Amino acid sequence: MRIFDPHIHMTSRTTDDYARMAAAGVRAVVEPAFWLGQPRTGPGSFADYFDSLIGWEPYRAAQFGIVHHATIALNPKEANDPRCRAVLDLLPRYLDKDRVVAVGEIGYDSITPEEDDAFERQLALAVEYDLPALVHTPHRDKAAGTRRTLEVVAASGIAPERVAVDHLNEVTVATVRDSGCWMGFSIYPETKMSPPRMVEILKQYGPDRMLVNSAADWGVSDPLLTLETGKAMLAAGFTEDDVDRVLWRNPVEFYGQSGRLDLTGAAAGADEPTFAGSSIKRGGS
Ligand SMILES: [Zn+2]
Protein backbone atom coordinates (compact mmCIF):
# COMPACT_ATOMS: atom_id res chain seq x y z
CA MET A 1 0.00 0.00 0.00
CA ARG A 2 1.44 3.39 -0.95
CA ILE A 3 0.11 6.29 1.09
CA PHE A 4 0.05 10.06 0.55
CA ASP A 5 -1.13 11.88 3.69
CA PRO A 6 -2.63 15.11 2.32
CA HIS A 7 -2.90 16.83 5.71
CA ILE A 8 -0.45 16.21 8.55
CA HIS A 9 1.47 18.55 10.86
CA MET A 10 4.89 16.92 10.99
CA THR A 11 6.38 19.92 12.82
CA SER A 12 4.76 18.52 15.95
CA ARG A 13 5.83 14.88 15.35
CA THR A 14 9.05 13.05 16.13
CA THR A 15 11.47 11.12 13.94
CA ASP A 16 9.94 7.96 15.44
CA ASP A 17 6.74 8.94 13.65
CA TYR A 18 8.59 9.45 10.37
CA ALA A 19 10.15 5.99 10.75
CA ARG A 20 6.79 4.34 11.51
CA MET A 21 5.13 6.17 8.64
CA ALA A 22 7.82 5.12 6.17
CA ALA A 23 7.52 1.50 7.32
CA ALA A 24 3.72 1.70 6.88
CA GLY A 25 3.99 2.87 3.26
CA VAL A 26 3.65 6.63 3.68
CA ARG A 27 5.79 8.11 0.91
CA ALA A 28 4.44 11.63 0.57
CA VAL A 29 2.86 14.20 2.87
CA VAL A 30 1.46 17.70 2.64
CA GLU A 31 1.86 19.83 5.75
CA PRO A 32 -0.61 22.72 5.96
CA ALA A 33 0.41 25.83 7.90
CA PHE A 34 -1.72 25.96 11.04
CA TRP A 35 -2.07 27.25 14.57
CA LEU A 36 0.77 26.05 16.81
CA GLY A 37 -1.21 25.99 20.06
CA GLN A 38 0.76 28.80 21.68
CA PRO A 39 -0.51 32.05 20.14
CA ARG A 40 2.06 33.85 18.01
CA THR A 41 2.66 37.52 18.70
CA GLY A 42 3.67 38.83 15.29
CA PRO A 43 4.48 38.13 11.63
CA GLY A 44 8.13 37.29 12.32
CA SER A 45 7.33 34.01 14.01
CA PHE A 46 5.09 33.09 11.07
CA ALA A 47 7.95 33.77 8.65
CA ASP A 48 10.24 31.45 10.64
CA TYR A 49 7.51 28.80 10.70
CA PHE A 50 6.84 29.07 6.96
CA ASP A 51 10.59 28.84 6.27
CA SER A 52 10.69 25.68 8.36
CA LEU A 53 7.77 24.18 6.41
CA ILE A 54 9.59 24.62 3.10
CA GLY A 55 13.15 24.09 4.35
CA TRP A 56 13.82 22.05 7.45
CA GLU A 57 10.77 19.79 7.41
CA PRO A 58 11.22 18.52 3.81
CA TYR A 59 14.85 17.78 4.70
CA ARG A 60 13.77 15.85 7.80
CA ALA A 61 11.14 13.88 5.84
CA ALA A 62 13.64 13.04 3.10
CA GLN A 63 15.79 11.14 5.62
CA PHE A 64 12.96 8.60 5.68
CA GLY A 65 12.22 8.53 1.96
CA ILE A 66 9.11 10.68 2.42
CA VAL A 67 8.45 13.62 0.09
CA HIS A 68 7.19 16.71 1.89
CA HIS A 69 5.24 19.66 0.45
CA ALA A 70 3.45 22.45 2.28
CA THR A 71 0.45 24.71 2.08
CA ILE A 72 0.85 28.27 3.35
CA ALA A 73 -1.71 30.60 4.95
CA LEU A 74 -2.75 32.63 7.94
CA ASN A 75 -4.87 30.07 9.82
CA PRO A 76 -8.47 30.96 10.77
CA LYS A 77 -7.89 31.07 14.52
CA GLU A 78 -5.01 33.55 14.40
CA ALA A 79 -6.77 35.62 11.74
CA ASN A 80 -8.62 37.08 14.75
CA ASP A 81 -5.45 38.42 16.37
CA PRO A 82 -4.64 41.96 15.17
CA ARG A 83 -0.94 41.31 15.89
CA CYS A 84 -0.91 38.56 13.23
CA ARG A 85 -2.88 40.08 10.39
CA ALA A 86 0.21 41.54 8.68
CA VAL A 87 1.02 37.90 7.83
CA LEU A 88 -1.40 38.32 4.92
CA ASP A 89 1.14 40.67 3.34
CA LEU A 90 3.91 38.07 3.76
CA LEU A 91 2.05 35.33 1.93
CA PRO A 92 2.85 36.25 -1.71
CA ARG A 93 6.56 35.67 -1.04
CA TYR A 94 5.79 32.09 0.03
CA LEU A 95 3.10 31.30 -2.51
CA ASP A 96 5.78 31.61 -5.19
CA LYS A 97 7.90 28.80 -3.70
CA ASP A 98 8.33 25.45 -5.44
CA ARG A 99 7.34 23.28 -2.48
CA VAL A 100 4.10 25.18 -1.78
CA VAL A 101 1.23 23.29 -3.40
CA ALA A 102 -1.83 25.15 -2.05
CA VAL A 103 -3.10 28.06 0.02
CA GLY A 104 -4.20 26.67 3.39
CA GLU A 105 -5.45 26.01 5.94
CA ILE A 106 -7.92 28.82 5.46
CA GLY A 107 -11.61 29.01 6.38
CA TYR A 108 -13.49 29.49 9.61
CA ASP A 109 -12.85 28.85 13.27
CA SER A 110 -15.39 30.97 15.17
CA ILE A 111 -16.87 32.71 12.08
CA THR A 112 -15.95 36.32 12.88
CA PRO A 113 -15.73 39.34 10.53
CA GLU A 114 -11.92 39.10 10.79
CA GLU A 115 -12.07 35.46 9.63
CA ASP A 116 -14.37 36.46 6.77
CA ASP A 117 -11.82 39.01 5.59
CA ALA A 118 -8.80 36.68 5.86
CA PHE A 119 -10.69 33.84 4.14
CA GLU A 120 -11.78 36.01 1.22
CA ARG A 121 -8.36 37.60 0.78
CA GLN A 122 -6.62 34.23 0.80
CA LEU A 123 -9.04 32.67 -1.70
CA ALA A 124 -8.23 35.64 -3.93
CA LEU A 125 -4.52 34.83 -3.49
CA ALA A 126 -5.18 31.22 -4.52
CA VAL A 127 -6.78 32.48 -7.72
CA GLU A 128 -3.97 34.98 -8.31
CA TYR A 129 -1.20 32.41 -7.77
CA ASP A 130 -3.08 29.67 -9.60
CA LEU A 131 -2.98 27.36 -6.58
CA PRO A 132 -5.54 25.00 -5.04
CA ALA A 133 -6.98 25.91 -1.64
CA LEU A 134 -7.24 23.75 1.49
CA VAL A 135 -10.22 24.85 3.55
CA HIS A 136 -10.71 23.96 7.21
CA THR A 137 -14.30 23.64 8.47
CA PRO A 138 -15.16 24.76 12.01
CA HIS A 139 -15.50 22.09 14.68
CA ARG A 140 -18.55 23.72 16.26
CA ASP A 141 -21.85 24.14 14.38
CA LYS A 142 -20.33 22.20 11.50
CA ALA A 143 -23.31 22.04 9.14
CA ALA A 144 -23.97 25.80 9.13
CA GLY A 145 -20.24 26.57 9.07
CA THR A 146 -19.75 24.30 6.07
CA ARG A 147 -22.65 25.84 4.15
CA ARG A 148 -21.27 29.31 4.78
CA THR A 149 -17.79 28.12 3.79
CA LEU A 150 -19.10 26.88 0.44
CA GLU A 151 -20.90 30.18 -0.20
CA VAL A 152 -17.67 32.11 0.30
CA VAL A 153 -15.76 29.66 -1.92
CA ALA A 154 -18.36 30.02 -4.67
CA ALA A 155 -18.32 33.82 -4.45
CA SER A 156 -14.51 33.91 -4.74
CA GLY A 157 -14.52 32.61 -8.30
CA ILE A 158 -12.04 29.79 -7.61
CA ALA A 159 -12.95 26.60 -9.50
CA PRO A 160 -14.54 24.11 -7.07
CA GLU A 161 -12.30 21.28 -8.27
CA ARG A 162 -9.35 23.29 -6.99
CA VAL A 163 -10.73 23.42 -3.43
CA ALA A 164 -10.59 20.73 -0.75
CA VAL A 165 -12.98 21.20 2.17
CA ASP A 166 -11.56 19.33 5.14
CA HIS A 167 -12.62 17.77 8.47
CA LEU A 168 -15.93 16.56 7.04
CA ASN A 169 -18.27 14.00 8.57
CA GLU A 170 -21.55 12.24 7.78
CA VAL A 171 -23.48 15.49 8.23
CA THR A 172 -21.42 17.65 5.87
CA VAL A 173 -20.20 15.29 3.14
CA ALA A 174 -23.21 15.53 0.80
CA THR A 175 -23.23 19.34 0.74
CA VAL A 176 -19.56 19.43 -0.20
CA ARG A 177 -19.92 16.70 -2.80
CA ASP A 178 -22.72 18.67 -4.46
CA SER A 179 -20.55 21.79 -4.55
CA GLY A 180 -17.96 20.11 -6.77
CA CYS A 181 -15.19 20.63 -4.19
CA TRP A 182 -12.96 17.79 -2.95
CA MET A 183 -13.98 16.15 0.32
CA GLY A 184 -11.35 15.83 3.07
CA PHE A 185 -11.69 13.57 6.12
CA SER A 186 -9.43 13.67 9.17
CA ILE A 187 -9.27 10.30 10.91
CA TYR A 188 -8.70 10.53 14.64
CA PRO A 189 -8.15 7.95 17.39
CA GLU A 190 -10.94 9.11 19.71
CA THR A 191 -13.02 11.93 18.30
CA LYS A 192 -14.48 12.89 14.94
CA MET A 193 -13.98 10.42 12.09
CA SER A 194 -12.80 6.81 12.63
CA PRO A 195 -11.66 4.24 10.02
CA PRO A 196 -14.95 2.27 10.19
CA ARG A 197 -17.04 5.43 9.75
CA MET A 198 -14.82 6.48 6.85
CA VAL A 199 -15.39 3.14 5.15
CA GLU A 200 -19.16 3.60 5.47
CA ILE A 201 -18.88 7.06 3.83
CA LEU A 202 -16.78 5.61 1.00
CA LYS A 203 -19.38 2.85 0.49
CA GLN A 204 -22.12 5.43 0.24
CA TYR A 205 -20.38 8.13 -1.81
CA GLY A 206 -17.63 6.28 -3.68
CA PRO A 207 -13.95 7.24 -3.99
CA ASP A 208 -14.37 10.21 -6.34
CA ARG A 209 -12.80 13.47 -4.97
CA MET A 210 -12.23 11.81 -1.58
CA LEU A 211 -9.16 12.68 0.51
CA VAL A 212 -8.29 10.80 3.72
CA ASN A 213 -5.77 12.28 6.16
CA SER A 214 -4.55 11.79 9.71
CA ALA A 215 -4.29 15.55 10.44
CA ALA A 216 -1.83 14.43 13.11
CA ASP A 217 -0.48 17.28 15.24
CA TRP A 218 0.36 17.94 18.89
CA GLY A 219 -3.03 16.71 20.04
CA VAL A 220 -4.20 13.13 20.44
CA SER A 221 -3.74 11.86 16.90
CA ASP A 222 -2.10 9.03 14.96
CA PRO A 223 -0.13 9.36 11.70
CA LEU A 224 -0.92 5.74 10.83
CA LEU A 225 -4.72 6.11 10.68
CA THR A 226 -4.45 6.48 6.91
CA LEU A 227 -3.01 2.95 6.83
CA GLU A 228 -5.74 1.74 9.20
CA THR A 229 -8.38 3.23 6.89
CA GLY A 230 -6.82 1.43 3.92
CA LYS A 231 -6.88 -1.86 5.83
CA ALA A 232 -10.50 -1.27 6.86
CA MET A 233 -11.39 -0.60 3.21
CA LEU A 234 -9.84 -3.90 2.13
CA ALA A 235 -11.61 -5.77 4.94
CA ALA A 236 -14.91 -4.26 3.77
CA GLY A 237 -14.44 -5.50 0.21
CA PHE A 238 -12.84 -2.53 -1.53
CA THR A 239 -10.12 -3.50 -4.01
CA GLU A 240 -6.45 -2.60 -3.73
CA ASP A 241 -7.02 -0.27 -6.67
CA ASP A 242 -9.77 1.55 -4.72
CA VAL A 243 -7.40 1.95 -1.77
CA ASP A 244 -4.61 3.19 -4.04
CA ARG A 245 -6.97 5.72 -5.55
CA VAL A 246 -8.13 7.12 -2.21
CA LEU A 247 -4.79 7.01 -0.40
CA TRP A 248 -2.47 7.90 -3.27
CA ARG A 249 -3.89 8.93 -6.65
CA ASN A 250 -6.55 11.31 -5.30
CA PRO A 251 -4.11 13.49 -3.31
CA VAL A 252 -1.67 13.37 -6.24
CA GLU A 253 -4.45 14.61 -8.51
CA PHE A 254 -5.64 17.31 -6.13
CA TYR A 255 -2.26 18.83 -5.26
CA GLY A 256 -0.96 18.10 -8.77
CA GLN A 257 -3.19 20.96 -9.88
CA SER A 258 -0.54 23.29 -8.41
CA GLY A 259 1.89 22.16 -11.12
CA ARG A 260 4.50 21.87 -8.35
CA LEU A 261 4.07 18.37 -6.96
CA ASP A 262 7.41 16.59 -7.32
CA LEU A 263 7.36 13.02 -6.02
CA THR A 264 10.79 12.09 -7.33
CA GLY A 265 12.17 11.33 -3.86
CA ALA A 266 9.28 9.13 -2.72
CA ALA A 267 10.73 5.79 -1.63
CA ALA A 268 9.81 3.04 -4.07
CA GLY A 269 8.15 -0.03 -2.65
CA ALA A 270 9.08 -3.45 -3.99
CA ASP A 271 5.98 -3.68 -6.15
CA GLU A 272 5.01 -0.15 -7.09
CA PRO A 273 6.59 2.60 -9.16
CA THR A 274 7.27 6.07 -7.82
CA PHE A 275 4.86 8.61 -9.19
CA ALA A 276 6.98 11.28 -10.84
CA GLY A 277 5.27 11.71 -14.17
CA SER A 278 6.03 14.79 -16.24
CA SER A 279 2.37 15.75 -15.99
CA ILE A 280 2.85 16.28 -12.26
CA LYS A 281 6.06 18.29 -12.07
CA ARG A 282 5.97 21.52 -13.95
CA GLY A 283 9.21 22.36 -15.72
CA GLY A 284 11.16 25.41 -14.64
CA SER A 285 10.41 27.23 -11.42
ZN1 LIG B 1 -4.68 20.80 10.26
TrEMBL record:
InterPro entries listed in its UniProt record: Metal_Hydrolase, TatD-like, UCP005295
Keyword Metal-binding: yes
Keywords from the named record: Hydrolase, Metal-binding
Any one GO molecular function term: hydrolase activity
PANTHER family: HYDROLASE TATD
Family: Belongs to the metallo-dependent hydrolases superfamily.
This protein's name: TatD family hydrolase
